[in-house]
Specification:
22% strand; alpha/beta; eight-stranded parallel barrel; 209 residues
Length: 209
């Protein structure tokens, strides 16, 4: 079970995520987010990471020039698209990417998967109050088709208390958390990160045994 800690805003939280065993961190480059970082802040955060933690850059309907500015400054390993980006837009930087899908759009998830054949995975998330991720809201996991033909990353309102149930019920390839491991907007709680990762992986072992 892979785990991504999203909405990292400082080096201390990046270190805490890595030390807890996170596979990836998420850096938000959407100005409308409470967890948005600049390329300069993101570069400093990445300096605190060990070499094998995946750095994910999250964008929402960004201009190509803004994406290029991030990629010039930040050692990004994976792109995450949350807006209306076309497959051609997502693929032009020759980096692996994941495509975010709203819970409502998950009702036609297989159609979305066909449109984005090169996506490494599809992140299913709740959208609320004009925010693209990091809302702290869950959704009805039953909208996700089972089985899925491509890897699913489950997000949306996950926390240490509910992630085990989510993993057992949905059986995603990975889980993604932001608000659920925070003590305040953009400020992570190291203890909650550890609890979340332990719970997710323990549940994955049970569901595959």
């Amino acid at each position: 079970m892979q785990v991504k800690i999203c909405g990292i805003t400082n080096a201390s939280d990046a270190r805490a995520a890595a030390e807890a065993g996170a596979d990836a961190i998420g850096l938000v480059f959407f100005p409308g987010s409470k967890r948005a970082v600049t390329p300069e802040q993101a570069a400093a955060i990445c300096e605190a990471l060990p070499p094998l933690v995946t750095v994910t850059a999250l964008f929402v309907n960004a201009e190509a020039g803004d994406v290029e500015a991030v990629l010039r400054s930040v050692p990004v390993n994976l792109l995450q698209w949350h807006g209306a980006e076309t497959p051609e837009f997502c693929e032009q930087w020759d980096l692996p990417y994941i495509r975010a899908v709203t819970a409502e759009a998950a009702l036609s998830l297989e159609d979305v998967m066909v449109r984005y054949p090169k996506a490494r995975g599809f992140l299913i998330d709740a959208v609320a109050d004009g925010q693209f991720g990091g809302t702290g809201h869950t959704f009805d996991w039953n909208v996700i088709p089972s089985p899925c033909s491509r890897p699913i990353i489950l997000a949306g309102g996950l926390n240490p208390a509910n992630v085990a149930d989510a993993v057992i019920r949905v059986r995603p390839a990975a889980v993604d958390v932001s608000t659920g491991v925070e003590r305040g907007p953009g400020i992570k709680d190291p203890a909650k990160i550890r609890q979340f990762i332990r719970a997710a992986r323990a549940a994955a072992e049970v569901s595959t045994s």
